[in-house]
Specification:
Blueprint (H helix, E strand, L loop, with lengths): L23 E10 L2 E11 L5 E4 L6 H9 L6 E6 L4 H4 L4 E4 L10 H12 L3 H14 L15 H13 L5 E5 L7 H16 L3 E5 L3 H7 L2 E6 L2 E7 H6 L4 H8 L5
Parallel strand pairs: 3-7, 3-8, 5-6, 6-7
Antiparallel strand pairs: 1-2, 1-4, 8-9
Bound molecules: adenosine-5'-diphosphate and magnesium ion.
């Protein structure tokens, strides 16, 4: 499959076993710092398809868990493995991460997108067209030649997503991508995420915005004090949480 095709088929997330790195299997994951166990014995499997939201109070370990899954930090114990046919060998090239604060190059908007394509190895002749396409889809076409640092916070986050979208990752980790944004920019970011999902990118997102979790989640991982307390379909989690901690969290009563 040509992952750079601007109009990937909507059914792409039902990718054949021949070309996917999924499922993601996390087993007995642990992370220690300063003598403290911050991630403690987390085990789960994420298959291709649904949108996963990781929920939990501030300090629960959501960001650490995403960084461990994406391979930005090494676990103190346990394993993160990509179990699809192309598996760990291809994992790094087929996943991406978007952060709370976008990390952009001090270049124009389009140069930020083109640079990502260049790193991926996309043919030079194809880069400009793919970049223009994702800028149009994210509402950034008119800022094409604007220095990225002059964009508003919401526009910068849209650019971070556009740059990622251009790469057509199989898996996208998002760490509180809208926590610094106003409602309109939040809506725009959610809409881009939804389009990426529709095109076949597997979304794994943290948020502490319950409204956002209800809008976007198909399933929920609920983390508290570095432990995974629940992994449930979103409806079940929100209607009948299995743990007292999750019930308290949903009422707004849970503190770290
Ligand atoms: N490198 C580190 N060294 C020490 N403590 C850390 C480190 N990174 C995170 N922590 C701590 O681990 C806990 C979980 O952090 P984090 O994953 O950022 O939480 P969340 O994203 O759920 O708010 C917090 O108490 C945080 O202070
Ligand atoms: Mg965090």
């Amino acid at each position: 499959m040509d992952l750079t095709a601007p109009n990937a088929a909507p059914s792409a997330h039902r990718a054949s076993a021949a070309n996917t790195i999924l499922p993601l299997r996390v087993e007995g994951l642990a992370y220690d710092a300063n003598g403290q166990r911050l991630i403690d014995g987390i085990t789960f499997t994420l298959d291709a398809g649904p949108r996963t939201v990781i929920l939990g109070p501030n300090g629960a370990g959501k960001s650490l868990l995403l960084r461990l899954c994406h391979g930005l930090i090494a676990p103190s114990g346990g394993t993160v493995t990509w179990q699809g046919a192309t598996g760990n060998a291809d994992a790094a090239t087929h996943q991406a991460m978007v952060f709370q604060r976008p990390v952009l190059l001090r270049r124009s908007v389009i140069a930020n997108v083109v640079y990502g394509l260049k790193l991926k190895g996309t043919l030079r002749a194809e880069r400009a067209e793919i970049a223009a396409d994702v800028l149009a889809r994210t509402g950034l076409a008119r800022f094409k030649d604007t220095p990225a640092r002059l964009l508003s916070g919401g526009e910068q986050q849209k650019l971070a997503l556009a740059r990622t979208w251009a790469l057509r990752p199989q898996v996208l980790f998002l760490d509180e991508p809208t926590s610094n944004l106003d409602p309109a920019a939040t809506h725009a970011v959610e809409s881009i995420c939804q389009h990426m999902h529709d095109e076949g990118t597997r979304l794994i997102m943290t948020t502490h915005d319950l409204g956002q979790a209800k809008r976007l989640a198909d399933d929920v991982l609920f983390i508290h004090k570095g432990r995974l307390l629940e992994h449930s379909p979103a409806n079940a989690f929100f209607e009948t949480p299995a743990s007292g901690e999750a019930a308290a969290f949903l009422r707004g009563d849970l503190r770290w």
